[in-house]
Amino acid sequence: VRILRNVEKFRTVFDFGGRDVAHWFPGHMAKGIKQMRSNLRNVDCIIEIHDETLDVRPHVLILNKMDLADLSRKKRILQKLQRDGVKNVLFTDCLKQRDDSINNVMMDVIGNTERFNRDEITNYCVMVIGVPNVGKSSLINALRRTNLKKGRASRVGGEPGITKAVLTKIQVCERPIIYLLDTPGVLNPKIENIETGLKLALCGTILDHLVGEDIIADYLLYSLNRLQKFSYVEKYELQGPCDDIQKVLKHIAVKIGKTKRVKAITGIGNITVTVPDFTSAAYDFIRCFRKGELGQVMLD
């Protein structure tokens, strides 16, 4: 009880320290958007895995990684999306071996929609879009396993930027013949504010080193404490909740055995000393959050 009482003294506002991560738009993103637009005439449906808008074709909105999310707000999320005119919404976990729900909704959408200039074509083409590291390639592979009983055709990874360009068509269904286009993850060229940028970085949408593992880890600690999600205490065997990221990272580094050797200047010459590796500790802390090992967290 005494330890939890100290939580009342924790930060209520995060100090961004004048940092700026509001511009992260690599060349492959600009190229990817251009390629997507040029391919729209050949597309029957868009599967959207975030809130980017390409209002040209019917689309399905996939809210992926449901195994990591706090779904207590699911009803409220659906109601808001319906008010915004978004009808086909699915909560999914595309790392599963099969996903019939996506398949069924996709089939329904493309089977009941005008085909614009593609009436004479017997096969279908679906474009998958979304922010980096949201699970687009995993979705394509899940559909191939569901319909074709085949393994992955699109490379996946745990960091943004795996897919660099709009790829050739990937077949995901035999009857009817359906192809999917994988696309590079894209962000808005300008992120609206620093906190939005940190939330994107925390979710793995922006490469960690572009923001800094230390600042991402500190924002994660601040957010967990603010939401009173203290599972990190048990995970890393801390004495109790802590608001000092340096103390937390030092403890994590010792626990996972991550150290580094650095030179120290003393009055008798230079010596090499072993110190905790705070960067490795920060990465481990962030990785555990992304894998859901720190509990289900909803960042407002």
From TrEMBL:
Its main location: mitochondrion. One of its GO terms (molecular function) is GTP binding. SUPFAM superfamilies: P-loop containing nucleoside triphosphate hydrolases. One of its GO terms (biological process) is mitochondrial translation. Gene3D superfamilies: 1.10.1580.10, P-loop containing nucleotide triphosphate hydrolases (3.40.50.300). InterPro entries: GTP-bd, GTP-bd_ortho_bundle_sf, GTPase_MTG1, P-loop_NTPase. GTP binds at residues 64-67, 133-138, 185. It comes from the Eukaryota. Pfam families: MMR_HSR1 (PF01926). GO terms for cellular component: mitochondrial inner membrane. It is found in: Mitochondrion inner membrane. Keywords: GTP-binding, Membrane, Mitochondrion, Mitochondrion inner membrane, Nucleotide-binding, Transit peptide. Residues 126-191 form the G domain. It is a peripheral membrane protein. Belongs to the TRAFAC class YlqF/YawG GTPase family. MTG1 subfamily. Plays a role in the regulation of the mitochondrial ribosome assembly and of translational activity. Displays mitochondrial GTPase activity. This is Mitochondrial GTPase 1. It comes from Cynoglossus semilaevis.
